[in-house]
């Protein structure tokens, strides 16, 4: 029955789209207003129909459409999604102007407009969804100073060593079978273990970690997938698709149960009993400045923990998979990296240590090239402005959503020669200590922005770079990675929570030292 209703909805949408889609794209809006009073150009707005058209696209379908619109209409275009305009910017210097030079003006987030978004962000009590103001500042500063500070990150090096060993053991076992290994699940699990330990402390076992991973992953994947339709005409779909709606709420409830159990255990533990500080510990006593200094509720702590896990796991494991895929595809890059590592390892056998990483400039170049060529997110999270603003001669109205095309900027042929090729050598410029000199924060000049730029730049940048450098170095040091016979390693992309490999990497791996 439910499938029947979905088919009716999809059928109606398809008919509407097919009748109007071409017309939408061939038309342009004409106006007598000056540019600074008008929105950036875009396909004309037919209120309900435009929303249906855009909501029924996922981001990977939207990206080529936007690319075409930018070619025709210029670096800023407007789509009309739900009740507000959504502006997309493809130009690097306009992005720098907005997010760096006018950072405070463009630092706000739009309120979630979809049913799913509203529930998941739990009334905007997460760093990524909070408005730009005292609560956001408190939550973000808490994360960066208490957990992502280099000294705290260093105190968790035993956790990285433990996870690395699990990864190496499992690859060693697989290598003995001689069969190619599908690596994505191992990478996702490894990153998840690390983030769970930072979030809930290091006394969890594999079973507990797996339980959290299961609920988080289902909610993450299905919210952007099969539950997405609940965002269309919520009053109608909540009746017609009541079973799916119920399933969504059950999943939210399951997630709350699993995370609440861990949060309570952490809260009730005796103080000062030798546990390393975890992210949830830092949340219990925070006082919300905008709400009479009240403490966070359990649901809000769940929201923040869930954000921490989601933000740091798929992004990093996706980047890791893309980088290793390029190691397999381009054996000369892998060999050059191996030789660099060999140069600093002397007679040591197994682990490339965290202190070794700064002596490996080519490794850093490989990671930067991986993030440029395959940024895990091809867009930022949506930004907004609190007052009408002008950018590039066009109006950005108060509360409009504005987003920036991350991948396009890293592939700009005006900056990068042969931009679609994988060439770590691009990042050769080094400082007097022999370290790669490249400003990934884009504060002076923006050439790529896999972590965003400006006030909302990813606070996990340092941790993510450490994870990528540490794991890539150790995977290449311990194993030789080769393509399966006759496999060219396809770099085709697919949009999930991040932009992943459409055909997940399968590699033959051979221990370097037997
Ligand atoms: C390769 C790994 C990662 C990539 C590519 C990445 C990328 C991004 C991007 C593009 C944004 C949006 C910036 C904007 O909207 O302007 C973001 C935001 C965020 N990221 Fe990351 N991220 C990564 C890893 C991490 C890690 C490890 C953590 C935490 C442990 C993290 C936590 C966050 C948070 C909390 C935000 C919201 C910031 C705000 O709104 O103020 N990320 N990240």
From TrEMBL:
InterPro entries: Cyt_P450, Cyt_P450_CS, Cyt_P450_E_grp-I, Cyt_P450_sf, Plant_metabolite_P450s. It comes from the Eukaryota. One of its GO terms (molecular function) is iron ion binding. One of its GO terms (cellular component) is membrane. It is a single-pass membrane protein. CDD domains: CYP77_89 (cd11075). Keywords: Heme, Iron, Membrane, Metal-binding, Monooxygenase, Oxidoreductase, Transmembrane, Transmembrane helix. It is found in: Membrane. The chain crosses the membrane at residues 6-25. Heme binds at residue 458. The keyword Glycosyltransferase does not apply. Its cofactor is heme. It holds the Pfam family p450. Belongs to the cytochrome P450 family. This is Cytochrome P450, family 87, subfamily A, polypeptide 6. It comes from Hibiscus trionum (Flower of an hour).
